[in-house]
Amino acid sequence: xALRVGALSGAVPEALLGSWPLVVAGxxxxxxxxxxxxxxxxxxxxxCAAERPLDTFVELACPVCGAPTGHxxxxxxxxxxxxxxxxxxxxxxxxxx
Length: 97
Prior knowledge:
It is built from one helix and six strands. The chain is α+β, with helices and mostly antiparallel strands. The model has no long low-confidence stretch (mean pLDDT 88).
């Protein structure tokens, strides 16, 4: 399983990775692995008419011209990027009638 975690999401990738073994222990997912893709923050600056990456978050403002913006393009997400599930390996099937 893989997650996409934005820089401004409030989620801590290290905490997610560290807690994963506790979450899946004793479940059908016990052997599953977790990877986390960190997504940098970016805003749309109307004044520059351009996407601008944010290196640090102090305020939602264009790092080039300083114009305020509330248009966060990415960096706030916590989403499932993909899941690879082997259904046959995790399904018990009783062929008896």
